[in-house]
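User: I'm putting together notes for a lab meeting next week and I want to include a structural view of one of the chains we've been expressing. I don't have a solved structure, so I'd like a prediction I can at least talk through. The sequence is below, exactly as it appears in our construct file.
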Amino acid sequence: MFIEITTPQNPIKVENTLRPYKRGERSFTPEVARHILQSTNNPKNIKDTLRLIAACPVAKI
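Assistant: Thanks for the context. Below is the predicted structure for the 61-residue chain, given as structure tokens.
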């Protein structure tokens, strides 16, 4: 699947957006994943997003 970057953002800003999801403070949803992947092509941001997707319960996806 290809996701086009439509809203480019600085990798640090994306990391700050991901932080509450990585800490478990907010619920990670498919909409959040799509927003992140449409915002960056930074390998670390993508890796963190994929880890969050992998940790989601199957029923949520």
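A couple of points you could mention at the meeting. The mean pLDDT is 92. The radius of gyration is 11 Å.

User: Perfect, that's what I needed.
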